[in-house]
Amino acid sequence: MEQITVLLIDDHRVVRQGLRDFLELQPDIEVVGEAGSGAEGVELARELLPDVVLMDLVMPGIDGVETTRRLKAVSPSSQVIVLTSFADDDKVFPAIKAGAISYLLKDISPEDLAHAIRAACRGEAVLHPDVAAKLMQEFNTPRPNEAPVEQLTPREMDVLRLVAKGMSNKEIAETLIVSEKTVKTHISNILSKLHLADRTQVAIYALRKRLVPIDEEE
Prior knowledge:
Keywords: DNA-binding, Phosphoprotein. By secondary structure, the protein is an alpha/beta fold.
């Protein structure tokens, strides 16, 4: 059985210990490190390259949003799951834009948390119902100046959908049977044509346009 490696980042030691105690009971999940601050978490991620990071948002020093942004820069393959007590708009949207694949509240059941970790490892998003409702409202808000998707080529549409599903360039290349260089070119064209800054904005655009679903359950 292939192990899913997990890094815990939370400034409360008791919370980290509770998460570790539960996750270590899962045969396919291994906690490989803990950090009590964002800065420490980024350095551990650089060293350990975990599959999944469980991230609190409110921490001393750099917060979870900035930590997510820095962590994705040093370990792009790591999937970040926000695990917090807050579902406020001013926290949800920045965290997802920074690169978090899932946003969960700390009242989640242990079993659902394990499901979310496995889903994140597959590149699938899992959202707390309150967060999903906020995102759907955001996605349904008209954007009069948004670039039309019709200007993308069919192959660029294929790449856009796979980016929105959380696939890496290598995974997209394997799926479409093309080179990684070709995938990078398509992504560059997508960003340019749609006036988007990064892959996260591509995912949000695709969700708003209903080009891919928000996966909440298996």
